[in-house]
């Protein structure tokens, strides 16, 4: 059996499974999380919740800004006393830097439309 036929068979199985169990899973999920559901579910209520989320996030910026500067001060202190730095701490810093670089590269690839050269084929 070819790869395409195998993929089609798997997709058919998945579609059948979702058709059979999807509704009960949906009901179970809603029942487990009913404390998060707002009643009545109206457009006005959704707009209100969206505004509350936006302004709550906006209000949290000063706290996150302070936390950022505290973290930066800690990094500065570590840099000043780099002779006392342990190998484990240096390894964590290197891994963090590599992770940041990898996310940057992934963002660049996504920004170019998932191409590696920037040209669309």
Automatic annotation (TrEMBL):
InterPro entries: ATP_synth_F0_gsu_mt (IPR006808). It comes from the Eukaryota. Its main location: mitochondrion. The keyword Disulfide bond does not apply. It is found in: Mitochondrion membrane. Keywords: ATP synthesis, CF(0), Hydrogen ion transport, Ion transport, Membrane, Mitochondrion, Transport. Transmembrane segments: none annotated. Belongs to the ATPase g subunit family. This is ATP synthase, F0 complex, subunit G, mitochondrial. It comes from Dillenia turbinata.
């Amino acid at each position: 059996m070819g790869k395409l036929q195998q993929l089609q068979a798997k997709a058919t199985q998945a579609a059948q499974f979702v058709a059979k169990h999807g509704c009960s899973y949906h009901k179970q999920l809603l029942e487990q999380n009913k404390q998060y559901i707002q009643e009545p579910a109206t457009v006005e209520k959704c707009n209100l919740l969206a505004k509350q989320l936006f302004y709550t996030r906006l209000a949290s910026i000063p706290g996150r800004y302070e936390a950022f500067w505290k973290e930066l001060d800690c990094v500065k202190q570590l840099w000043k006393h780099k002779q006392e730095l342990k190998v484990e701490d240096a390894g964590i810093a290197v891994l963090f830097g590599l992770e940041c670089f990898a996310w940057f590269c992934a963002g660049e690839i996504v920004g170019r439309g998932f191409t590696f050269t920037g040209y669309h084929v």
